[in-house]
């Protein structure tokens, strides 16, 4: 990658950070939660594993275990 390309990427990244900062200052908690869920789903649907994948697997395993336990004990 050339220095010019890196400079362009850096400017785009800075602009995105400024937009995120404005959003975080003005958005409601509901809007922030909705955006977080959308980003989380995009990450989970991507092909590259991330820490979110591990968390989702743990949550799914915990939920399955709870459902099995509830059925076993008639809850």
Helix-strand blueprint:
Elements: H1 3-26, H2 29-45, H3 51-72
Coarse morphology = elongated
Along the chain, the helix and strand elements come as HHH
Structural class: mainly alpha
Estimate nothing, just give the exact number of structural domains.
1
What ranges have pLDDT less than 50 throughout 5 or more consecutive residues? none
Task: Supply Rg.
Answer: 20 Å
Helix content: over 70%
Distance between the termini: 59 Å
Which whole number gives the mean pLDDT? 81
β-strand amount: under 5%
Count of distinct strands: 0
Q: What is the count of DSSP helices, taking H or I runs of 4+ residues?
A: 3
- Major beta sheet summary: none
Short key terms for the protein model shown above:
single chain, 75 residues, mainly alpha, 3 helices, 0% strand
Describe the structure.
With 75 residues, the protein is mostly helical. It has one domain. Helix content is 84%, strand content 0%. The longest helix has 24 residues, at 3-26. The chain is elongated, with a radius of gyration of 20 Å. The termini are far apart.
Summarize the structure.
With 75 residues, the chain is mostly helical. It contains three helices and no strands.
């Amino acid at each position: 990658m050339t220095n010019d390309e890196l400079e362009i990427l850096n400017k785009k990244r800075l602009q995105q950070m400024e937009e995120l900062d404005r959003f975080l200052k003005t958005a409601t908690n509901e809007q922030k939660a909705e955006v977080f869920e959308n980003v989380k789903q995009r990450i989970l649907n991507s092909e590259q594993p991330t820490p979110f994948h591990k968390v989702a697997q743990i949550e799914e395993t915990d939920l399955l275990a709870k459902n099995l336990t509830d059925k076993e004990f008639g809850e």
